[in-house]
Here is the input.
Amino acid sequence: MNRKSVYILLLLIIKATFSFSQNQTMDNTTKEIMLQGKEAIVMYAFTIIKEKMPELDINPEDYEIKVWANKSQAIVIFKRLIEYIPFEESRDLKFDITVDLIQKDLEEDYFHTFFIPSKAEVKKINFVKEHVTFSSDFDYSIQEYKDRYWINYENESIYGGYFINNITGEKSAELHGHYESEPTPENPFVENDPLKEIFNSTSKDEILNIIQTSANPNMDKFIEITDLLSVEEFEKIRNFILTKGDRRTYRNFDSNNPHYHFNDFHAYLNSEIGQKNINNDPEISDFNEITIHDWNDGAFDIQYYTIKIVRKGDIKNELIYVEEEMKENSVYLLNAYEKDLNLMLKHLKEHYLIKLRNKINTHR
Here is the structure.
């Protein structure tokens, strides 16, 4: 069996392996894809490319191939190692290929023309490869002129280029320089689920962690978090806000809520009997909710986190509203704005509770 036959057979096997049912969840599909391993994933990406661009004769050696994923996406990026710009080319060319494994399609680009080299252009590229030593430390492009090629190379700190004769390969007119290093500005719009490179140095457990449950958002009304925030700790935070904070109105429902400013977010207490204590007077009722308000969390589209305690006797107390299925001596994270509870819980655990605890512990 020749090399081409083996390649075709492998493609057929991989394609069969990746034939997922249409009713599978995106999360499960992503897991299935990622756990096949990089070689199988790349081969599957090849089948998609061949289906969508049959005219492209792709050589893996011409590309840097990386697999990226998050909780809802799985993509393979084929980055062309050497970009070739033909003589008097007027089009805006695209050289890289992004394969969406979930949608089984290629990333669309309406503003660039994908470069598919002709046989003559492949011959010219091979000529350049014979006369130029390419390093993995740089990105390269070849600009064709009438009688020579301009070889451009660059990375984050160095740039340069030179001509080579298109007959002799003789090198001339070299220039090079350094980019001035500038501090990277802080990005206030941090993605809540960024793509991460898989199989670079990623274990199987890390892959599963990257693509865990947030692909299927939990839109429930509440989730119990007593194991994360105990009844006793809730009361400690409540007491801290009451004794160390001030008063501030943050919503139209009531006013004059007990409040504390924790540097980059605000925390409020809400009366356990709602508008029957519209001014949040501690002489009238206790407080059974802590609302965290973070204006800066707009990048995640979640600004309010309300934590509710159900104390002993609350369920039978007609003045206190308790959701069905909640139980006493428990703490819950509410989802009044229909956000992803899994994501809310993650932010609460990894950010807000840490800062709450640190602040309270330093004021003992």
Summary: Residues 1-27, 186-190, 210-216 have pLDDT under 50 and may be disordered. The first strand starts at residue 63 and ends at 69. Helices lie at 3-17, 26-34, 38-52, 119-131, 204-210, 231-244, 341-361. The two ends are 77 Å apart (CA to CA).
